[in-house]
Amino acid sequence: MLEQTELSQKLALSALLTDVTLPGEKVSTQVFRCGQIVSDIPRGIPSIGLITRGRIEVYSVALDGKDILLNELSAGECFGICNLLAQSELETVLRCSVETEILYIPKAVLLESMAADGTLALRFAAVCSEKIQFLLKRIELLTMQSCRGRVIAFLLAHSNKGGEVIFRGSREDLARHLGVSRAALFRELAALQTIGAIESHGNLFHVMDPGQLEDLLYHPSNTK
Known about the structure:
Blueprint: H1 4-11, E1 28-32, E2 37-38, E3 47-53, E4 55-61, E5 67-74, E6 78-79, E7 93-96, E8 100-106, H2 107-116, H3 118-142, H4 147-158, E9 164-166, H5 171-178, H6 182-194, E10 198-201, E11 204-207, H7 210-218
Antiparallel strand pairs: 1-8, 2-7, 3-6, 3-8, 4-5, 4-7, 9-11, 10-11
Helix pairs in contact: 2-3, 4-7, 5-6
């Protein structure tokens, strides 16, 4: 059982769950090793998980067994939200990329809180909307036919106002994220550097000319 002070500190990490009061005897924490698979039905209880420490990679597994990195979740983010009103387990695979601590909240407990707190229900709706928008962008990216198109779309979508793009994983992780081979990713990054569209230093990319990338993206004749 978690003390209320400790529980409140953990909930405060989440924009969704901050200021929410939950019974300490109904929630639980669990620590997972790097590489462990995480479920949203711990001990058979449908729950949402709040990451309080660490990081989780979210994968989709295709029929041919190939896994595609969909997203990375870090401290303060939740999983199991989108199927809050469903009893089925997540179709995605959740794997810890570092040692990770998760606060599990039974769905029934969260639903009771939402029924009593309209503000929490609205925040939940906002989170779901954001996740839908994110997934639509991921689908658009992954359905692009060319490797170069996927790489360019990623760079444009994740660059900040200064043109910097920081990817926390390795180049191999980025290749899985884009659904392309590592060799193809290296080839396209090298080609974009050669024409001066980007600069690359380790996991830091710098978009030098967004207009040039957009021209390559939206004119298929210029894209391999």
